[in-house]
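Appendix B, example 12.
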Amino acid sequence: MLQTVFLKIRRWESSRPVKCAQALETGDIVIVETEDGLDSAIVEKVRNENEKSQSAGSQNEPVGIKFVRKANLRDLNVIKEHRQKEAETLKICIQEAKKSDLPMKIVGASYSFDGGIISFAFIADGRVDFRELVKTLSKNFQRSIRLHQIGARDEARSSGGYGICGRELCCIRFSDNLPSISSEMAKSQHIVRRGSDRISGLCGRLMCCLAFEAEQYQEMLKKMPAIGSEIKTAEGKGVVKKVNVLSDVILVELADGKYVNISTKDI
């Protein structure tokens, strides 16, 4: 029976769904065929038949990737050799990028299973002309070189870690269905005033968990007056200065400068 497994080829990439007939479990190492040849991957998740929720990008098997086999002992030894080389390979790439004074941070290196391709991941604020760097690396390693620009969340996913909540980073636990995080999510929850340091994750970007309750906050805010609007209260007209969505309380400044807390049901 066919099952859908989510495979991660490179540490900085999101997992991708693939259908296969062989029974696999989370953590299994497998060999896959991509458009560039053979590569190794790890099974991050196995989707059960009764699992109804699917991410938008995981409805169909992606083009260009095909399950070949579960890794045998010989395969695992080859993968181990590659992993041992990657640390030194990464160091050399970082040195060459510094020599060329390129505005990029090299954060990862990965050998393909057949050893013919070395992929590097980097972070940069904008576009980087790395053509000369590719030529230098190709000459040094005698391999085909791929450079992939990734985001800060991808780096955090690759490095791993725990958030201030004490749990594993959301970008790792929910890598296949995390929505994009916007400043509007923080505004709707009225936590922008805490400062960027308080609402940013290890990656320096807005925390992924801001998305968990954003929709509920936005729905509740529709029932409350906007900050700065004028409303009528039992003590007269006033201007809304603050709203507390969870307690359903509004802070209002009256015409005489007095502040009062009222419930939305009293408006």
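The chain has six helices and twelve strands. Residues 52-59 have pLDDT under 50 and may be disordered.
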